[in-house]
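SEVERITY: medium
COMPONENT: batch folding queue
REPORTER: lab tech (J.R.)

DESCRIPTION
The queue accepted two submissions in a row. Attaching both inputs and their returned structure tokens so the on-call engineer can compare them side by side.

ATTACHMENT 1
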Amino acid sequence: MLRSRPLGPFVTVAARRSAVVASWTLISRATGLGRVVVIGAVLGPTFFANTFIATNVVPNIVFSAVAGQALGLVVVPAVVSASSRGPRGPRGHAAELLGGVGACLLTAAGAVTALLILASPLLAWSLTFGIDDPVVGQQAQRIAVLLILLVSPQVMLYTLAALAAAAQQAQERFVLAAAAPAVENVILIVIVVVAGVTWGTGHEVGGVPHGFLLTLGVGSTAAVVVHTGLQLYGAARCGLAVRPFRRWWREPGALRVARRLRGSLAVPAAPMIGMYALLIVAATVPGGVVVVQLAYAIFQFPIALGARAVSIAVLPDMSGSYERGDRAAFAASWRQALTYATVTGLPAAVLLLVLGESVAHVLASGEMRSPDVIARFAACITVVAVAQLAAGMHQIGRQGLFARIDVAGPRNASLALLIMTVTIAALALLVTPGTMRLVILCVALLLGELAGAVITLVRLWHAIRPEKFADPAHIAVAVIATAAMLPVVGVGWWLLDTNELGTAAEFGVLVACGLLSLAAFTGAARARLLHLSGGAT
């Protein structure tokens, strides 16, 4: 097999699709990281920064309670199936399915948004209860209530955006679906910078100008409006316009998808609830939410480029293979996904473990540039460097199970993740507020993802048998190629550790080290694959 396909999964259609998704996802994640960096630089390590960032996460958490990432994982296989049969022609049947599912989800999102508005005082209290000064705590709580009200429409907007993105993925159109979030991030970055220039930086909750506060709240929702509009345009362009219709319950396909989404509710909701628990505890440390969100953005970076990109690209093929009953093709697609996730996860882990302190020093800018903040950030990066590996395995395992219309496995994995994350986050409250508390929160993230990964991979292994679960030869190539990076990474660490460099120079060394390390990885991987294939080109 290796002789007939010398470059294995690296030259398959799935890999090329993954590269397209990864390229645009790289831009999206880079702007997402830049968004948190800019917010931190403008707002600083303050309780107001904690409140603003945490309340901006609330719509995503509530959206996850409606469907979240499970929407794409459930809708894509359903649309692929609908496109292959139906008396009205392939896209007509699929469009009706999308319209029914859209009406169902928007009804649910509207109801949940109303509950969010009603529960805003309780949510605001949960995000500010750890502030010791009662006056500052009350001021932060009032600001949190206002911000939650301003961002609450985002729940319905994200629901529409996710449905439109799923429609594009089902038609194997990945570019706009992956790129649209970057537009949202860029718009919010501009809004935060303009607000900082206009009203100043580093405000604490007791001295935030009203115009500053309203600009941030309204601006963040306006950015999501643009994001949603782009996704809807992309869906319409590929022939699957999202047009919700009344009496959606009369569409049998929509009812089946709705029931499947209801059964998979815990899959996206549990991790987001766990994340909310982390933010609650992080908010007890001034600027703690900024640090945790920065670490989380870095944690998401390799996952988005690896596990998420490849699973999005491979999911239609895996769903089609399962629909046809082709076990061998399904297993082959799964092995490609597993290999590619390993290829992206291992180098990222090495780079972050070795260069984490320098990464923290470069990203902690503006009001966040203090020794204490940098030390906390660097410690958190060390933990998430390992956590992203576990999360990548969890991600592809979960999507592999969804392609098989298996909801129970991902649900059990997500519940295990939630229990582990919340338990360890609660234990973090027992230590003194500071660096150790934030590090324990990142450990909670690591162990939660590890629990989810074990459950999904074991279940998928049982489902794939007797087909081969993994490709040991190609995974070994990834390990060997990662080892080939170590000399380059070591030189980069030495340069950064022994020289007093400015931020720009330090950033340049980091970029050069990263690029040279990846070049070493790619060269070693290609050489090893050619060796395995007997020198074929």
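ATTACHMENT 2
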Amino acid sequence: MDRSIELGKEAQKTDLINADVLLQYCANNGFSAPVADILDIRQAALGLSRSVSKASAGLGINEIDVPFQEVLLKYASEPLGPTSQTSRHERQLPEGIAGSEQWVRDSLEKIANVAPGKLAWHDIYADEALQDAIRADKETSEGKSASALHGIPVGVKDMFDQTGKRAGWGGTLRQSEAVATQEATMITRLKQAGALILGTQHMAEFAMSPTGLNATYGPGQNPWNTAHVSGGSSSGAGMSVGAGHVPLALGSDTGGSVRLPAALCGVVGLKATQYRTSLHGVMPLSPNLDGVGPLAQTVRLVGEAYAAIAGPDGVDLSCLPVKPNLPDWDTPNTNMTIAYPVLEAGSLLTEEMLNAFKATLATFKEMGFTLVKTKLPDLDLLGQLASVMLAAESAAVHRHWLMTQPEKYGRQVRRRLSRGFFVSGMDYYDVLRLRPVFLKRFLEESMPGADAFLLPTTPGEAPKITDTIGSDETILEKRFSALSYWTRGINYLGVPGISFPAGRGAQGLPLGVQLIGRPLGEDRILSMAHQFEMQTGWPKK
């Protein structure tokens, strides 16, 4: 094949591309990689392009990209009751803890002694947190508690700007960057709610691994069994909350990165409606898929954290102009409908996970919820469309660094980011045009008249770490794709989802299921998950 081929046009037509041509294309676009990796990357990009071609075959010429925020508002769920940004209940102190200072000291002790220990953390602000805790105790004694988060120690993923500190983004690339001169909106809102930021936490490199893999700091370890993965990319959040280091942590979810570690570590994790949380001061990966979300030991605490951080932000104009609302935690409400698909065990669903899914349905039915059997959406296709969006946007974000400092990226992350160099503008535009179409189809076919849609969060228990590392990147990438099969497409739809514990597998590790809501329907899925938690007693450790 002649070197003069213009890959931007002709590469879309054939898989048989000469490696020399690919190398020249890479050189022309300012990045490099081993030949074997480039061939794999190109092949993966071609697969994504075929998925877009299949999905867009029926698009009309008049169907143009519209702001997805408008689409989400069009299909928004009505609030369960009078809109209330935060509830008024007092914080729940752990047994044996008298106040915030003691709570922080207890957290520091657990970080030192409870596996996976310090691995879950990047930086620990012990002195700052203790000073803040003393002040919080004083405020509590004076009746000045700001919210249900007041005086609670919290961990945050290492990707949020904090004044005078440098977010590492899970790697070494930013070590020479200046420290932040202002706070991320999410950090500001946590502090306004009275939360005590204990430190930053382990994360997958640039938030690019569903297992919690990090080539620099080591893979995330599951607090139930450290030979197994924590899930990612909010690995430190899952590890720390699952181990009891802190009751609450803040992560991000682009393709499942809150829900996956929540499920695998036996805690609760919420992905809010797209554009519900500000991304100001947050590491960008794929802004049209990114969202900030809490992981906590209980549904109620997840809800309180969500109410504290979500809502309009004058600095991030992409945020939806609607304040969050919460359910009435103390009044059961089973007057809601849960849709569900018929599932079978297989390579993407273990027998144990299927049993937990069925048991969850049985519990909801016993509690009085209405169940309706509906259609499973094409999660594989939705995941592929999400991957096109992720590839294009993340490559654009990292383009300069991939060109100038490629050695600062782990091989696996570099391979995944480089896919975006081979994604065409036409495919990216079609993915944007298709998003409202697939959201409408999901709501009509999978959630007709329903308040939520129940799915597994993962195929099963957390995999062993040894099964997620190795030299054959193609095999590993297939395994990673399988792990996020049940979550990735949900981000493309832009709807909210909450993962919560629903049992244990054959190895005694946690299993999680997720309730998917309609746009802005967080209050409904929070209510359902909370009532399930009260009924079953999960999480248990």
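NOTES FROM REPORTER
Confidence is low (pLDDT under 50) at residues 1-16.
No errors were logged for either attachment.
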